[in-house]
Amino acid sequence: DFTVEYYYDNVIDITATVTGNGQLGNAIPHTPKPRDGYVLLTIVNENGVITDIPANNVVKYYYVKDYFDYTVEYYYDNLLDGTKTDTGNALFQSVINSYTDKNINGYKFDKTENFPLTISFNESLNIIKVYYIKDTFNYKIQYHYEDILFDDTKTETGSALFGSVISTYPDK
After folding, report:
1. Statement: residue 170 has pLDDT above 70
2. Percent helix, strand and coil across the chain, each rounded to 5?
């Protein structure tokens, strides 16, 4: 008799275990059983042959989680600023729950997509998107006259998006 066992993060997968019997002195038949997100670490008794001692007729495959790349993209008014993109590398199924705030003057945080991120073996899915939009700011129009330096009763107030040009005002 022989046995082939498969371990993922040092935990045996009983459903993957293969048992059989063969002729004394023949190689123990075995094949890898990779899983998405895992990499083969080692094979114990890889070149084993069938003996009359069943405990010696065991091949063990050990797989561990692999590392995968991820990206954090930054958008301003829905336009990607590729100069601000960050990249990293993390263990399969780990959770990325932070990113660098890259807010710029005149903008405010809007939303994120795919955050927090659970690392996938499919690197095209490992993208966090951070969105910023133009902020709104208050402004004042003040009226000054020759004989009165400042007449606060005529002051107008308003608000506008960052970068807007205030080109009209009430005639007073």
Report:
1. yes
2. 10, 45, 45
Is the confidence at residue 129, as pLDDT, over 80?
Answer: yes
Measured CA angle at 128 (ends 125, 131), to 5 deg: 135
Q: What is the pLDDT of residue 148?
A: 65
Confidence at residue 146, expressed as pLDDT on a 0 to 100 scale: 76
Average pLDDT over residues 101-127: 98
C-beta separation of 22 from 29 below 8 A: yes
Q: Detail the DSSP E strand segments found in 45-106.
A: 58-65, 67-76, 79-80, 86-91, 95-96
DSSP 8-state assignment for residue 29: P
d(CA 160, CA 14): 65
Closest by CA to 131, choosing from 66, 84, 167, is: 84
Q: Where do we find the tokens 């336009």?
A: 79
Identify whether the C-beta of residue 38 lies closer than 8 Å to the C-beta of residue 66: yes
Counting residues of the chain whose pLDDT is more than 70, the rounded percentage is: 98
Strand partners, 60: 5, 44
Closest CA to 129 of 72, 60, 67, 61: 72
* Spatial separation of the C-alpha atoms in residues 32 and 48, rounded to whole Å: 15
Asked if 122 and 116 count as a contact pair (C-beta separation under 8 A), the reply is no
